[in-house]
Structures are given as C-alpha cells and as structure tokens.
TrEMBL record:
Residues 65-99 form a coiled coil. The chain crosses the membrane at residues 35-58. Gene3D superfamilies: Mannose-Binding Protein A, subunit A. It comes from the Eukaryota. GO terms for molecular function: carbohydrate binding. SMART domains: CLECT. Pfam families: Lectin_C. This is CD209 antigen-like protein E isoform X1.
Length: 240
C-alpha cells in the first residue's frame, strides 16, 4: 500500500511541473527557431537595402545615358554643320580661283590709255582741247565712252588739278535739286570730297544767281560753282 501511494505522488509531481521547466532539448529547438527568424529578418533588410541601392544606381545610370544620348546628338549636328562649312569653303575657294583666273586674263588683255589720255590708278583722264558749256563736256565725254571726272580722294584731286592750267568742268552739279550736289554717275558728294570746295563755296552767286555746275580752278586747285552755260574746258575719265 505504501508503494502504491509513493508511485501516485511521483506521477502527480511530474504532471504538476511548470511549463517553463521542460526538459533541455525542447528549449534548444525554440532557440534555433528564433535565430532562424532573426536571420531571415536581417536578410530581408539587407535585400531591401540592396534593392534601394540598385534603384538609385539605375536612376543615375538612366540620367547619365540620357545625357550621353543628348551629347551624341549635339556632336552629330556639329559634325554635319562642319561638313556644310567645309563644303561652303571649298566652293568659295573654287570661286576665288575662278576670280583670280579672270583677273589674270583681264590683266593680260589690259591696254594702255588711248593717245592723249593720262593714267592714274585704274582710270584714264583727258583734258579737252575745246571749251564749251557743262553739257557739251558731258556729251563729249560720253561719246568717248567716258564721263566727266568724278573725284573721290585727295590723291585723285591732286592729280586732276595738275592736268590743267585753266579752269575745267568736273562731273559735279546740283542741276536736279538745288543745293544737293551729286556726281554725274549718280553718287552723292561725300564729306571727304566736299573739303575740296573753295572758301565759302558753293555760293550760287552769279549774274542770274544760278550756278549749278562745278569746276576746278587752276589758280587754287579748289572747286567752285559756276553757271552751267559758261564756257570752260572739261576733264573726262574712264576705266583703263
């Protein structure tokens, strides 16, 4: 009887043992499970961080690729423009060669000024042997494939003034519009040429107050306005 009672007490002590007091093997298994879960969590965090890094890197790479494409497009446009420029330069070079050839041919064909004419620069000049009104000088020069002299530089002024020892008509007038002096070829009188007027000239002072034609004076080598009907020699000019 005592043995039975002792066995019952032993069984009850086993059944009433607290849950936290299980044998060692089950506690070790739970620890392993916790470690696995923790490892999986850490691995997930690492994978997420890796994905974020890859996303940022991909975004940067895409931006760089877009920039490279834009640069390539710009370079291709510049290349095409350079090709166009080279083509234009080649055409200009060929045109210059043609111009040089033509000029060389003209120089070979170039003749001296006709008898009685004087050369200055690229023009020939002739002092008439007769006198007459300004319109006679204009018409005579035209008949010689020339025109009344047009003076557009101080050097030409000096040369022309040395041609004659008498007053002579030049191709300057304000016949078309009073006060507006123009050359016979239609070009306006420039401030550079206007310095060759004599003192207080042009003054439009004459017997009838109508001095519309210009001439060069022999005594001062300056210009003066005079009635177009007066009789003077004239100076013609044409391209050599």
């Amino acid at each position: 009887m005592e043995d039975i009672y002792a066995n019952v007490e032993n069984d009850m002590s086993v059944k009433t043992r607290p849950l936290g007091m299980e044998p060692g093997p089950r506690s070790s298994e739970r620890s392993r499970h916790g470690a696995v879960v923790l490892g999986l969590v850490l691995l997930s965090v690492l994978l997420l961080a890796g994905l974020i890094c890859l996303g940022v890197h991909y975004h940067d790479a895409a931006a760089q690729l877009s920039t490279i494409k834009a640069n390539v497009t710009d370079l291709m446009e510049e290349r095409n423009q350079l090709k166009t420029n080279v083509t234009d330069l080649i055409e200009e070079r060929n045109q210059l060669k043609t111009n040089v050839t033509e000029i060389q041919m003209l120089l070979k064909q170039k003749k001296a000024c006709p008898d009685g004419w004087r050369r200055f620069g690229c023009s020939c000049y002739l002092l008439s042997s007769q006198s007459g009104p300004w319109t006679d000088g204009r018409d005579d020069c035209r008949s010689r494939d020339a025109h009344l002299v047009v003076i557009d530089s101080s050097k030409e002024q000096t040369f022309v003034s040395g041609i004659t020892k008498k007053a002579a008509w030049i191709g300057l007038s304000d016949r078309d519009q009073e006060g507006t002096w123009t050359w016979i070829d239609g070009t306006p009188l420039t401030s550079t040429s206007a310095q060759f007027w004599g003192t207080d000239q042009p003054d439009n002072i004459g017997l009838n107050g109508d001095e519309d034609c210009g001439h060069i004076r022999a005594d001062t080598a300056q210009w003066n306005d005079l009635s177009c009907d007066d009789s003077l020699q004239w100076i013609c000019e044409k391209v050599a």
